[in-house]
Amino acid sequence: MIAVLALFAGVLLGVWLDPTVPSALLPYLPIAVVAALDAVFGGVRAKLDGIFDDKQFVISFISNVLVAGIIVYLGDQLGVGGQLSTGVVVVLGVRIFGNVAAIRRHLFRA
Amino acid sequence: MPLPSDDETVPLPSDDETVPLPSDGDETVPLPSERETASVGSSGPAVVGSPVRRVLPRLTMANAMIAVLLALLGFTLVVQLKSNSTDASLENARQEDLVRILSDLDAQKERVRQDIEGLEESQRQLNSGAQGRQAALDEATRRADELGILAGTLAARGPGLTVSFMPVSNPIGASRVLDAVQELRGAGAEAMQIAGGDGATVRIVASTYFLDANGGISVSGRRLTGPYMIMVIGDPKTMQTALNIPGGVVASVSGDGGNVAIQEREVVDVTALSPPKDLQHARPVS
């Protein structure tokens, strides 16, 4: 409940403040968002499975974001940033789909 | 059948939440390699921190962390969405894309520059043509003005004389006025008009004729009464000399019982116009 409220608060804050993204962060922000979404869906799934753990969620959230950012940064340094970020997005997308499938099975039993 | 593919995610070990350690179910473990690192990374603090976590006000700390993280997620999500929807694509583009775009633009610039050169060349040509046309137009306008002044269809202004014929004992005859006009023409008069005593003016052109009418003269059918005043544009000195020669206009008018007053003017306005005549027979030979 608190998490949902916080998410809404963040969205509202983003709409209200309307900040501009610093150019240094531009390549990493989308990847970080996708990685965080992955962690959130994983957390929801774990919640439904009854094995949700706060610490686990926090750590996986942060590490997901950091690892995604590091991969993209590394890719940029190696000159394959575009491909690597695509790869990261694909992997995270697959995981999100898997987690959503599990959530769906929990909610709809189908 | 689509269902098996959907259900495939269940048996996959990477996707299964219950496979990892029971102490903390890893929410984000799908890839085996990542699960190893994650479990290693999380098992260390989990062992040390598990008693602490039970003791600490778990709800406030952890939930606060989750709330902060999710708020951050929502914030960045919105920011990213907004920047993506508002930004031109260039700002988010990668270096190699930018290089490609840059080279494309360079090639385009080169093409456009060549276009500019071609267009400038044609502009130069057109300009020279336009200049020639403009010069021809100016020349034609100048000639038309000259001819208009000569034909009496345009008003003229310039230095010249006003010549007044005042009858003293006898009225001034048309032949005297015609003499004066001829003399002025011979002296280089360029535009003339004659005014009667009532202020009526007639432009004097090549086809103008003078007749004696009762009590005055008829100039191209227009009846004027004395005194007459001729306004003439031309070289004042020459015309004055021409009028004053012995036995000339001034002398003969004086002999007929009249008086001639010549006044030199800096600016003479010849404003009367002679209506243009439609030519019926003569055609220009080009």
Structural commentary:
The complex is a heterodimer of chains A (110) and B (286). Chain A is built from four helices and no strands. Chain A has helices spanning 2-17, 28-49, 54-78, 81-108. In chain A, α2 runs parallel beside α4 and α3 runs antiparallel to α4 (81-108). Chain A has one domain (23-108). Helix content of chain A is 83%, strand content 0%. Chain A is mostly helical and 110 residues long. Chain B is α+β, with helices and mostly antiparallel strands and 286 residues long. Residues 1-57 of chain B have low confidence and may be disordered. Chain B has a five-stranded antiparallel sheet with strand order 3-2-7-1-8, covered by helices on one side. Chain B has a three-stranded antiparallel sheet with strand order 4-5-6, with helices on one face. Chain B has helices spanning 2-8, 32-55, 58-86, 89-92, 95-151, 174-186, 236-244, 249-255; strands spanning 156-167, 191-195, 201-204, 210-213, 216-219, 222-225, 228-233, 258-270. Chain B is rod-shaped, with a radius of gyration of 53 Å. Chain B has eight helices and eight strands, in the order αααααβαββββββααβ. Chains A and B meet through α1, α2, α3 and α4 of A and α2, α3 and α5 of B.
What would a concise description of this structure say?
The complex is a heterodimer of chains A (110) and B (286). With 110 residues, chain A is mainly alpha-helical.
